[in-house]
Design brief:
alpha+beta; SH3 type barrels; four-stranded antiparallel beta barrel; two-stranded antiparallel sheet
């Protein structure tokens, strides 16, 4: 695997691609209208199979489980940035109530 840190990718670099999996016309009729009118898209990480590429090029990648996928190169050496969104007031309140119930049951030996 190469040690590429620039914007260009070389064979074997970890990259992320974008792919339209289903166009709006291919989406099932039973979806809500607001969902049905947009494409179903995927962002897939894998190792570049082409000799070299630039962001925006159509490329082939091999995923971590060995699948070959075609898509548009969007990032070289992508970072993992998992997020769960902003805290939701309802969930925080429910968590506090649940914890209180658990603590009360523990205190009474249940």
């Amino acid at each position: 695997m190469s040690k590429n840190c620039g914007k260009d990718a070389l064979r074997g670099d970890l990259v992320q691609i974008h792919k339209v999996i289903l166009t709006p016309e291919q989406r099932p009729e039973n979806l809500p209208a607001s969902t049905r009118v947009v494409p179903y898209e995927g962002w897939i990480k894998g190792f570049l199979l082409d000799d070299e590429a630039k962001v925006g090029d159509k490329v082939r990648v091999e995923t971590f489980i060995g699948r070959e996928v075609l898509g548009t190169l969007v990032e070289v050496n992508p970072a993992y940035d998992h997020k769960f969104g902003q805290p939701q007031r309802n969930l925080i309140s429910a968590a506090i109530q649940a914890r209180g119930r658990i603590e009360r049951r523990s205190a009474h030996g249940e």
